[in-house]
Amino acid sequence: MSDQAADEQKASYDDVSIYELTPDRERELLEKQIECVFMWANKDGHPIGVVMNYIYHDGRIWVTATAQRARIKAIRRDPRVSITISSMGTDMGPGKTVTYKGSVIIHDDQATKDWFYPKMAELLNGYPATSVEAAIEMLDTPLRLILELVPEKAIKFDGDRVADMSRQAAKA
Description:
Blueprint (H helix, E strand, L loop, with lengths): L2 H12 L8 H10 L2 E7 L5 E7 L1 E3 L2 E7 L3 H8 L2 E7 L9 E12 L2 H15 L7 H8 L4 E15 H13 L1
Antiparallel strand pairs: 1-2, 1-5, 3-4, 4-7, 5-6, 6-7
């Protein structure tokens, strides 16, 4: 490999923004994965996050938590959050990620619960619940809230595209 080719390859590794997930691969990731890292700022401004199950629905990411959770208090102070979703554990293999930043809308209305609980229950079915009905019963508690992330920006990465570029560079 020439020095110029090596410099071009290094430069392309430095700027990984060119290795974005395509819209189709992004949708595939959102539909295949069931966990995300949900991140917010605490009252001191420090970022903090937890792993949560999510549902992708109508271009939004939906999660649930009970009202007494620290993240709910933080979101009520400042609804700006981010969510990261990785392909790890899916049949897509590792190395595909998307991070969304946006604002959260908190829902506690029955209409939202009526569509959300069955979808989340299907996701949870088998761990820890033994049936969809049992999962819905576990979710449907007086303090339960549903959080809707409205994405404002996405950072997307497709490690397969990096691997493809590396293979092409090795052949050159």
